[in-house]
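re: ur question from earlier - yeah i can do the single chain one, its not a big deal. heres the input i used so u can compare w yours
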Amino acid sequence: MNKALLTGLLAIMFSGPVSAFTGACQWVAKMAGPGYSVQPLKVASFTAPEELPEGLHLTLLERSGGWFVYQTQASWFTKETCAPVQKMVANTVFDFVPVLLNEATGRSAVVTSSFMLKTYRQGDIDKMAERYAFRLLTLLPSGNAAIFDVSGVTSYDRMLEQLDRDKDVQFAVPVLAEPHYRPR
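and the output i got, formated as tokens:
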């Protein structure tokens, strides 16, 4: 095998999807589906605008169910921190989560701590809860898929990378909070 061919093969092997994502929440958007895109300057919270301190410099963009979606001045997330973030102001903690854009509706999709995992075998669902310290919320009818609460994960992107490498996991997708699309 010549050196150029070997170099090309090695480049293909090590340039897979894991290294392709460098920005915050890109894995989450990819796994949500082709109609979702990252919104690095948006965050969501259950806290209403009148309850937030001005020092956070947030602008209310929309309301999505119980969620308030805000514009930030700079991204609060990185690939290593695509997960809920807390901001403390005057000894009060405020919780925020990442937001994606549903391009079909033009509305925000809030990234919650719920993810659906599908395994190759039914018995592997229980392994996921043990292996990753996820909390099983709902077992889906197929038996080899379930909704898990992944609270405590430092980065949803890193978690999805790890699950992508897990031989027992067929796929994992975020369960997003978003308004239902109603065609006119």
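The beta strands are 36-45, 59-64, 67-71, 85-89, 92-102, 107-119, 135-139, 145-149, 169-177. not sure if urs matches, ping me
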